[in-house]
Amino acid sequence: MEEEQEPEVAPDPVDVPEDDPKADAPHNISDEDAFKILLEMKMKKRQKKPNLPSTVTELVTEEGSKVFVVGTAHFSDSSKRDVVKTIQEVQPDVVVVELCQYRVSMLKMDEKTLLKEAKEINLEKLQQAIKQNGVMSGLMQMLLLKVSAHITEQLGMAPGGEFREAFKEAGKVPFCKFHLGDRPIPVTFKRAIAALSFWQKVKLAWGLCFLSDPISKDDVEKCKQKDLLEQMMAEMIGEFPDLHRTIVSERDIYLTYMLKQAAKRIELPRASEAEPRKCIPSVVVGVVGMGHVPGIEKNWNTDLNIQEIMSVPPPSTSSKVVRLVIKATVFGLMGYGCYRIGQRTVQFILSMQTTQNCLQRLTEIRPRH
């Protein structure tokens, strides 16, 4: 006997708001019409008077484009929320973050992996940093990573959370582009190292090596007016104005330049080639450390040329000397290690009973004169 099947229940109809552009749209529409519909939806969702966090600074270009700069603390849950809210409110055309291509991996790595990576500073990472940036710059990069690892360990929070949130939210906004706005880190480190004398490098390295002050999450939130990581760095490099110039001031210029480039006017879609082109001001969200916001404001109305701050000076004499010393030390240790291992191996073989028996037999069969 066949079981009686229950009738299928049709799903409830979905209510579509009257002002929804998709309500009257035909099912079969062209790509161009779909583009227009999505753009119209985006414009309607964009708030004319957005309710933005206090950490957001609004800047306007000469063409009328708006740039909303979110000043963040790199180890702050509150900053993540600020970034999400800002992007949702203004529905930007471009999101620019304070990252370069050498640090873009943190956007797609999960929090657990990043937390582990940030805490682990090993020989392999050191070798990679030296290979990429040179001896002095590589060593300095690892010392700065140690600062970040110290904060990570203290807070149990991986860095760059606000950038990952920006990346996720940008993907939810129609036609929103995502730009990396920071100067390549090898350029920054090489220029920073070149700005210091040999003894300044030693003094800075010493300070970074013995960083151990405890940090709490309350400390991070208190630093919303000045990013914690950048504040710690500012305290350590306060004695070195040239270092502050290369690590902070020059990057302020670069970030400002990239934000301006992202804020170009955008062209609206056209129904046909005969239709005249129409451009409108764009909306940009920038996500940067709080310490960079004053510099961006300062440079906003200035004509910027980044060629000078992108040049890498040749290695100094001290860098060459250090490189030679390190190489000589490494090869010397390797040679000494091989010598000691060989010496102990020979002693071990000679001490074996089998070896002694063989030597005794050889002595006995040696022809006597």
UniProtKB/TrEMBL annotation:
Biased composition (Basic and acidic residues): 19-31
Domain of life: Eukaryota
MF GO annotations: mitochondrion-mitochondrion outer membrane tether activity
Region (Disordered): 1-31
Stored CDD domains: TraB_PrgY-like
UniProt-listed GO biological process terms: mitochondrial fusion
InterPro entries associated with the record: TraB/PrgY/GumN_fam (IPR002816), TraB_PrgY-like (IPR046345)
GO cellular component: mitochondrial outer membrane
Name this polypeptide is given: TraB domain containing
Native species: Pelodiscus sinensis (Chinese softshell turtle)
